[in-house]
Amino acid sequence: MNIFVGSLPFSIEEADLRESFEAYGAVDSVKIITDKFTGRSKGFGFVEMPVDAEAQKAIDELNGATVQGRAIVVNKSEPKPEGERRSFNNNSRGGDSRGGYGGGNSRGGNDRGGNRGGY
User: Fold this and answer.
1) Residue 11 CA: distances (Å) to CA of 27, 31, 46, 47, 69
2) Model pTM score
3) What are the Gly residues biased-composition ranges (predicted)?
4) pLDDT tens across 36-51, in order?
């Protein structure tokens, strides 16, 4: 089972997180998500546990637990459907569909509509 762990202290290490979950059973992997530019933790991560019953017990007992002074959020991670993933180039123009050249009346300051060439 893939488990989401949120509201993590920024100082927590993957080894510390692994240790917390290994108290409930085997842990396949631990990944704390970090900012790709600064390398700093984003305050959440994922833990993969092979036995669902152990994973559920860890979720039940660790959700809301205090770790280094912060109440963490622990729940089953549900993969997002492919169509809902955010993309940097999807809707990056904020709904502006005028095109890339300013659209509208941008030639020579003639704003009387329709009469753009002066003929």
Assistant:
1) 21, 14, 16, 17, 11
2) 0.68
3) 97-108
4) 999 999 999 999 999 9
